[in-house]
Structures are given as C-alpha cells and as structure tokens.
Amino acid sequence: MSDDLFTLDLSGMDLKDLIQVVNEMDSKLNSKIIPEILEEVGDELIDEERRMLQGRSNKDGSPTKLSGLLTKQITKTGKLYKVKAGYDTATIKAHPESVIIEFGRPGKKSRKKGDKDKLGRKIGAVQAYSHIRAALISKKKAITELAENRFRDEIEELWEKGGKK
Fold first, then answer.
1. Positive or negative CA dihedral for 7, 8, 10, 12?
2. How far apart are CA 75 and CA 45, in angstroms?
3. What's the domain of life for this entry (predicted)?
C-alpha cells in the first residue's frame, strides 16, 4: 500500500526566496533584456531595408542615399514595446525624395489627364509598395524567431542564476 502513495517534500523550499527571484527576473527583463532584444530586432529590420534599397536609384540615375537615413526607435507604452524602423519625421522633411522614390509625386493621380494612352490603351496604375513594408514581410518570421529564442535563453539564464545577472 505504501508504494501507491505520492510524497512531495517541500521542506527545503522557501517561497519568499522564489517570489523574490521572480520579481528580480521581471525587473531585469523589463529594464535591460527586452530593450536589448528589440535592438537586435531593429538592427535586423534596418539591414533588410538597406538590402532592398541597394538596387534603387534617383531619377537622374545616381544611387540613392536613403539607406543612410534609416533609423530605429524603441518605444514603450505601458507594457507594450514597439520597434519603429524606417524614416523619422525630421528625415522625411529634410529629404522629401525619400517619399517621392517610394510613393511617387503627391497629387499625381489628380493631375492625370485621362485613363487611356495615345493609342487608346487603358493605363494601369501600379500601387506603391514601400521597401519598409517589404522588409518587414520578408523578415517577419526570422525576427520573431530571433526574439523568441533570445527571450527564452535570457529567462533560462536568469532562472539558473537566481534572478541576478
């Protein structure tokens, strides 16, 4: 009959220490580790955006300098972190060609004279597709896996060290 019993020895476990370790892990994750992981994610996105810009050129054929203007910013609202990778507002105001290369001239559609060319063929419109969106789509799975793996590794490392890093 004694073989059927399940015994659990909690005598060596101190719940106060466990709670303290979990609280220290939470503060370390929020203050240091999550921003580091998001920096890596932002770097990965910026690298992909730069790679997509390599083939672009200005209207005169000169290479575009847009890849040097890309920035990343990490923001936190409550418990939500965001990685913003692309052009900031000041860059767009200083270099309007970044918007023109990506999305065409503003108001071009309203200045259009008609929907047919000289030979009577219907003119089709090509929708603008930003390299920023394309980079996110192409790297979405890779950066998600990168963030998850780094997060998991950091939590395991913190747990093994007792919440101290």
1. positive
2. 16
3. Bacteria
The answer as to whether 33 is a domain residue is yes
pTM of the model: 0.63
Residue with tokens 């996105």: 45
Tokens coding 158: 């913190």
Q: Which residues have C-beta within 8 Å of that of residue 145, sequence separation ≥ 6? A: none
CA atoms within 13 A on the CB side of 118: 0
Identity of residue 10? L
The Cα 73–Cα 39 span in angstroms is: 9
Classify residue 118: in a domain, yes or no. Answer: no
pLDDT digits (tens, 9 = 90+) for 68-119: 888 889 998 888 888 888 888 888 788 776 666 555 555 555 555 667 777 7
Q: Is residue 114 part of a domain?
A: no
Between CA 23 and CA 29, with CA 24 as vertex, the angle to 5 degrees is 100
Count of structural domains, the chain:
1
